[in-house]
């Protein structure tokens, strides 16, 4: 399972960087940076997203809904976890800019490509992070422990036995 998760993770990372290039090219005014319609490239999200959804469900099982992302991404390094939220925040800003800022009719196509590619950045990066987390979690047992060596649930920040706090970076 770890090998398949790593392969899907790499495909998702490739898709992320492909759409990052499309996104940057759209800001530069080029709506077709690879000589083809970038929306067709977006069909690749199906390849990575179909296994990502059940993987996310598997990784976050038993956790409170508000903690599901934290639990599902527990195998990711902290920088990847934070970057996932950063990409999602950027997508929101990109969407608001598309909706609120006026766009010249001549630049409408590039603005739409920026909108679509921005959303696909989020989908590809969350697929990458989720599958990376699965690969890490399946390779080694992630048992979080407090200072007194009590076992903690993945979503808990405090030990239920002694009350010790365990930071996400620990």
Strand order of the largest sheet: 1-2
Number of strands: 2
CA-CA gap between termini: 26 Å
Structural class: mainly alpha
What's the Cα radius of gyration? 19 Å
Number of helices: 6
- Count of all domains: 2
Sheet with most strands: 2 strands, antiparallel
- Residues in β-strands, percent: under 5%
Q: Determine the fraction of residues in helical runs and give it as a percent range.
A: 55-70%
> Overall mean pLDDT score?
84
Helix/strand order, N-terminal first: HHHHHHEE
| Unreliable residue stretches | none
From the spread of the alpha carbons, the general shape counts as elongated
Describe the structure.
This protein is an all-alpha fold and 170 residues long. The chain folds into 2 domains: 2-139, no CATH class; 144-170. The chain contains 6 helices and 2 strands. It has helices at residues 2-27, 38-41, 45-59, 68-72, 78-100, 108-139, and strands spanning 144-145, 151-152. Helix 1 packs antiparallel against helix 6 and helix 5 (78-100) runs antiparallel to helix 6. The longest helix has 32 residues, at 108-139. It is elongated and about 65 Å long.
Question: Key terms for this structure?
Answer:
170 residues, mainly alpha, 2 strands
Write the layout of secondary structure elements.
Blueprint: H1 2-27, H2 38-41, H3 45-59, H4 68-72, H5 78-100, H6 108-139, E1 144-145, E2 151-152
Antiparallel strand pairs: 1-2
Helix pairs in contact: 1-3, 1-6, 3-6, 5-6
């Amino acid at each position: 399972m770890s090998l398949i998760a790593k392969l899907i993770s790499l495909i998702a990372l490739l898709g992320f960087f492909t759409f990052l290039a499309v996104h940057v090219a759209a800001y530069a005014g080029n709506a077709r940076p690879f000589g083809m319609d970038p929306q067709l490239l977006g069909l690749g999200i199906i390849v990575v997203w179909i296994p990502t959804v059940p993987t996310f469900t598997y990784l976050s099982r038993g956790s409170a809904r508000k903690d599901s992302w934290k639990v599902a991404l527990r195998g990711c390094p902290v920088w990847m976890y934070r970057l996932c939220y950063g990409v999602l925040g950027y997508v929101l800003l990109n969407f608001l800019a598309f909706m609120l800022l006026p766009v010249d009719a001549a630049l409408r196509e590039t603005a739409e490509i920026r909108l679509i590619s921005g959303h696909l950045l989020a989908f590809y990066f969350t697929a990458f992070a989720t599958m990376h987390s699965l690969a890490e979690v399946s390779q080694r047992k992630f048992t979080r422990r407090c200072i007194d060596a009590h076992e903690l649930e993945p979503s808990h920040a405090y030990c239920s036995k002694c009350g010790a706090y365990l930071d996400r970076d620990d």
